[in-house]
Structure formats: C-alpha cells, structure tokens
Design a protein that fits this description.
By secondary structure, the chain is an all-alpha fold. The chain has twelve helices and two strands, in the order H-H-H-H-H-H-E-E-H-H-H-H-H-H. It has a domain of 127 residues: Tetratricopeptide repeat domain (Serine Threonine Protein Phosphatase 5, Tetratricopeptide repeat).
C-alpha cells in the first residue's frame, strides 16, 4: 500500500470523524435547548439553538427549537421565519407544520393556519409520518397524541369566524379522542361557547358542566363558565 494511498484513507477517516463530532455537538445543543424550553427559559433556549444553527445551517430541529422558543417569547414573526425555513428544508415535517399553524393562529392569519393543520392531519392519516424531537424519531403513537391540538385550534378558528357548526364538529373530535389534558378540558368550554352562540342551550349546559368537572380550581375560565351556566339555567 503506497504512502499516498494510506494518507488518503487517513484523511477520509479524519473527515468522517470530524463530521460525526460536529453532528453530535449540533444534536446536543438542540437537546439542551429543548430542556430549557421545558423550563420556560426561552432566551437561553434561543442561544443554544443559535449555536446549533451556526454549526449546521440546515439542521431542521435547530430552527424548530428556536421557533418554539420565540413562540414562548411571543416573537411570532421571528418564530414564523424559523418555521418557514424549516419547511423549506422539508415540506412534510409534521412538528413544524403544527407549530407554524399555531403561530399563524396567534397572529390571526387563519387561512394559513387552517392549511397547515389540514396538511398535518392529512399526512398523519396517510401515515406519511416524519416527526422529530431533537434528532430522535418519535413513535407513531406519540405523534398521534398531537392530533387533538390541530383539531382544537381549527375549532377555535371556526368559532371566531362564527362558523359554529364547523367549530363544534372540530371540538367534538378533540373530546372523542379522550384524555384528561388541558386541551381536552378546554375543548368542553369552547364547545359550550359554540352551542351557546348558536342558541343550543341544553347542549351548552352539558358542555360547560363537563368543563367544570375537569377544570382545576384556578382555571382562568372557571368563573366565567359558572356564570354562563347560571344564566343558561335561568332562561326559560
């Protein structure tokens, strides 16, 4: 084996090792960013994700993590920029579609929000699953736990547009999926609003009663729901 050939093999090994080391550093930075997000330390999370993006400008999870941190800071346009770029890198990235849809919802761009939620649901139903947490693939079951969120925000959009039947249908889907999380509980509250504003008092009472059964004592809508119930029950 010639000296030149040996040098070539050695150089290739060094290049591969360097690439793997960089990728590990990028992944680690995003992982720490996710941990900081869970603690609501949004500024620190942004810094971690900045480092990941500096090391690899096409690492989707870097933009997803930073976009979520911007959401926590209510920097919706910055979040949108990151989610848009991530979707340019992969148009079928489910996590990004869901968060971008939520961002559109927050800035009242409802048509775009509905498009993202629709695509999220469509890809999920067709099993074209591609959903990441940091650099790790999540199981199909874990992905489907996010499905109520898409229906929930679709329901809120339709209620705000006074398309009550559509909003009610979406919120009923959330409730039919079961569970005891915050979204499931709030779905009962907003379902009650949909029934109330479309003059279906009996169903509104039922939905609001279910909400009070699952709502915590410090829930921001609890007092409002109790007053609405009193009004509905006092009406002939």
């Amino acid at each position: 084996m010639t000296r030149l050939y040996k040098f070539g093999i050695f150089a290739a090994i060094l290049l591969l090792t360097s690439s793997c080391t960089t990728q590990l550093s990028v992944s680690r930075a995003v992982f720490h960013g996710d941990l900081l997000l869970n603690k609501n330390k949004f500024s620190e999370a942004v810094s971690k994700c900045d480092k990941a993006i500096e090391m690899d400008s096409e690492y989707i999870q870097g933009y997803t993590c930073r976009g979520r941190a911007y959401l926590g800071q209510k920097r919706y346009r910055d979040a949108l920029n990151d989610f848009n770029y991530a979707i340019e890198l992969d148009p079928n990235e489910l996590e990004v579609l869901l968060f971008r849809g939520y961002t559109f919802y927050q800035i009242n761009e409802y048509d775009d929000a509905l498009k993202d939620f629709d695509k999220f649901n469509r890809l999920l139903e067709s099993n074209q699953i591609k959903f990441h947490f940091s650099n790790h693939q999540i199981s199909a079951r874990s992905i489907r736990l996010r499905l109520p969120s898409a229906y929930y925000y679709r329901g809120l959009i339709y209620l705000e547009r006074e398309e009550f039947d559509k909003g009610i249908a979406e919120l009923k889907k959330v409730i039919s999926m079961g569970g005891f999380g915050e979204i499931h509980c709030f779905a009962h509250y907003y379902l009650g609003q949909g029934y109330r504003f479309s003059n279906r008092s009996t169903k509104a009472i039922d939905a609001l009663t279910h909400f009070l059964d699952c709502a915590s004592s410090d829930n921001v809508h609890r007092d409002d729901a109790e007053m609405q119930l009193d009004d509905l029950r006092s009406c002939p």
